[in-house]
Task: structure prediction
Amino acid sequence: MNVVNLLKNPNVQQNALELLFPIIGFVFFDWSFLVIILFYLTDQLGVEIAYLMRLKFVEKIFLPIKKWLFPIAIVSSVTFFVVEFLWIERLFLTEKFDCSTNYFWLEMQQFLKQEFLFFLPVLVYMNYFKDKMTFYKSKLPYENSPERMLAFQITIYLARLTCVGLVVLLWYIFKWSDLAFVFIIPVLKLIFDAWLMPWGKINLFKGI
Result:
């Protein structure tokens, strides 16, 4: 695969942008480690919206529709997202982080006002565009059931909470600079995505 074809790959495009956004934010807009974490939470929100869209699409294929499944998916999505956010908040408000409650929520408010409303639609579109090229046009929607998708997504939630905990724990223990985490977080995310894609398609989507 040459460079041009590689750059046309939706997964490569999305990962490249997710790598660039925090670096640009850190260099040009003075993003802190907390803001970078909030950016990736926004990215995760976009992923959740795209996942629910995929689930709804697959649900229509496997008729009759189970009325309980989609509400459970929404509840589990919201629950894990809130738990993830509260976990990060609690860790940032520990004494070792030297982060006051006022500072945390002030950064949060500024991010919501300045970056969130811009990034959320961009990230939702990026995830939808990737799915449009790699999921909706493939055989995957016809090779897995909504139940398997939900089970797989819950597995992702647990793995994601572990990764988030690992990132914050590294900073908690070593107190590395924000610049180090500008690169550490995207690398961990790329590793997670690289593990996630083939594992999901083989083990749960195809039921092997």
The chain has one domain: 3-205. Confidence is low (pLDDT under 50) at residues 199-208. Residues 3-205 form one domain.
